[in-house]
Amino acid sequence: MANTDNDRRPKYQRIADSLREAIQAGEYGPGDRLPGENDLMATYGVARMTARQALGVLRDEGVAEARKGAGVFVREYRPLRRRGIQRLAQEQWGNGRSIWSADIEDRNLVVDQVTVVEESAPDRVGAVLDLAAEETVCVRRRRFVLDGKSVLLATSYLPMSLVTGTAITQEDTGPGGAYARLAELGYPPVHFREEIRSRMPSKDEATQLSMSTGTPVFLICRTAYTEGGRPVEINEMTLDAASYILEYDFEA
Amino acid sequence: MANTDNDRRPKYQRIADSLREAIQAGEYGPGDRLPGENDLMATYGVARMTARQALGVLRDEGVAEARKGAGVFVREYRPLRRRGIQRLAQEQWGNGRSIWSADIEDRNLVVDQVTVVEESAPDRVGAVLDLAAEETVCVRRRRFVLDGKSVLLATSYLPMSLVTGTAITQEDTGPGGAYARLAELGYPPVHFREEIRSRMPSKDEATQLSMSTGTPVFLICRTAYTEGGRPVEINEMTLDAASYILEYDFEA
Asked: In sequence order, what are the beta bridge partners of A115?
């Protein structure tokens, strides 16, 4: 794999490059243990620090992850495919199914740390939901855990004036969830906008999502609108990017 | 901002947290200079190394960026809003407009480093395009530069058997681009699937996109299908995540 370009690069970079190529070629599969520092020192005739730096490059890129006392392993990447459009179809929540049941295939997804509170609306939320200054929102916070690993934090905001006294203010919103309840109130959400950003997690997000080094988060902000164009919910989500593929299928 | 939780955290973390809060509260806007090491040392009574670590945290998160000799500044984030669905509407490319002209508002977007070559198809591409073992693809590679900053690398694959002899094999594909040419060939793309992933860039990607530390890339893989469900193009894109908001608008 040696070429003129690579040869001008530091040794640890060349070693990292050749390990990355081996991973991409399938010589090391997901979950496989990579050569350790001692192996790299022997193979490439380098110092321990150089071997360590090479493995550090792959860790920082999120290609590999260290497991305490066991070595460095190729990241096991079995992301959930989140079908952005199909999952929000009316026949989904209209028939009493939860939105995320469209995603999970044979995986085990549980929702934990559910809290529901009445709060004053953050400025950005109040502006989009077109609330008066003193209006409050119902804030639903929850965390989603996939196969034992936390993958998603979600916070929904709904105008309190709309949802007061309904199951939306309870932990369990009932069959079909909050959207089915909004439909019963005469405000079925029929149009959605999802905005996707990506950045590195804050320390706090990384802790809550048990994230490995070198892994970004997706931020998805969804706004749900009624037929008349009234925004009835904002859902701000933070996703472990290594756990998701976001898919959108649509017609030209 | 002191609370019991924070007080157990290392000093540099607490300083980073309070700077981050000040940024989020708008005390420091995009492009503003943050307090330097000397300022932080005086304000918090800490050593230079602690001040440096605090600023390092914000850099690693992509919240701030260092400018050589000038200090550390709040990241200027003026992302392009990429409207995933509207931009691919038939009236867009059907009327001779380029797809990305839907995105750019008043910004200056230029395409550079265009190369068009015939190559054997990578396995994953051949599998999706349903190619025979010996079939080749037309590979179109280009880079997009927004307001002088490279933001997107795109590589399209089209079956050579379909596009041979057409403007798709030329650098300039003509009005409406490759999709308009496919329509003329009797293969208008009418259905699209976009898959979005996010991860840290490789060294090479970071260089090509002139990326700051602590910034991930979006990977978008788009497949274009004809009415009959035939896949006619795969477009693999790598985007500087700090330069984009991906937006999808759709009906329930």
From this structure: A141
| Same domain, yes or no: A114 and A160 | yes
d(Cα A235, Cα B176) in Å, to the nearest integer? 36
Contact check, Cβ <8 Å, B196/A245: yes
Looking at A48, A74, A100, the residue that finishes a domain is A74
Asked if A194 is an interface residue toward chain B (Cβ–Cβ < 8 A), one would say yes
CA distances from B50 to A103, B12, B20 (A): 44, 5, 16
Contacts of B13 in chain A (CB under 8 A): 203
Between the alpha carbon of residue B186 and those of residues A7, A245, B94, B189, B190, the distances in Å are 49, 32, 13, 9, 12
Alpha-helical runs (H) found in A132-195 = 160-163, 177-184
My answer on whether B108 and B26 are in the same domain is: no
Please check whether residue B78 touches A, CB under 8 A: no
Q: How far apart are the first and last CA of chain B?
A: 42
Q: Residue A27: inside a domain, yes or no? A: yes
Residues B103, B151: one domain? yes
Number of domains composing chain A: 2
Do residues A116 and A240 both lie within one domain? Answer: yes
Alpha-carbon gap, residue A57 to A62, rounded angstroms: 9
Partner B contacted by A241 (CB < 8 A): yes
Domain's final residue, options B30, B46, B74: B74
Q: Do B95 and B56 fall into the same domain?
A: no
A216 in the same domain as A124: yes
**Same domain, residue pair A112 and A159:** yes
- Distance from the B61 Cα atom to the nearest Cα atom in chain A, whole angstroms: 5
- pLDDT 10s digits, B76-120: 767 888 887 888 888 788 878 877 777 776 778 889 889 999 999
Asked if this assembly's ipTM is beyond 0.95, the reply is no
Predicted TM-score (pTM) of the model is: 0.82
Residue A173 lies in a domain: yes
Q: Specify whether B143 is located in the same domain as B235.
A: yes
- Domain ranges, residue A136: 80-247
Task: Quote the CA–CA distance of B37 and B207 in Å, as a whole number.
Answer: 28
C-beta separation of A221 from A195 below 8 A:
yes
- Asked if A177 reaches chain B (Cβ–Cβ under 8 Å), the answer is no
Q: What residue of A is the nearest CA neighbor of B217?
A: A198
CATH of the domain at B155: 3.40.1410.10
Alpha carbons within 13 A on the beta-carbon side of B5: 3
Residue in B61, B199, B250 nearest the CB of A85: B250
Using one digit for the tens of pLDDT, what is the confidence trace for A168-184?
999 999 998 999 999 99
Are A202 and B19 contacting, i.e. CB atoms less than 8 angstroms apart?
Answer: no
Q: Do A196 and B196 touch (CB under 8 A)?
A: yes
pLDDT of residue B160: 97
- Does some domain include residue A5? no
Give the gap in angstroms from C-alpha A251 to the nearest C-alpha of chain B: 4
